[in-house]
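U., I forgot to send this yesterday:
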Amino acid sequence: MTIQHAGETFQGLRIPKSSPKGNKSHAVLIGSRDKPKLIRFGEKGAKTNQSAKQRKAFKDRHRRNIAKGETSAAYWANKVKWKA
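Result:
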């Protein structure tokens, strides 16, 4: 069940993948197969998730955006790049 969107192939909705384009490290499609929305998140080359202090600082700084749910890039960065 692959989905073609913006010249990229995704395994499905809500399945993040590495992003070959731009300065963002990952991309994910949300929404429906008929009207997918592309969200790019994460900084390419950034060192993330190296210590508990660094994770806490990210989660504190982006708490409101993470709470918005899967329409937010911070939600996906928290789930993919900052998981414990």
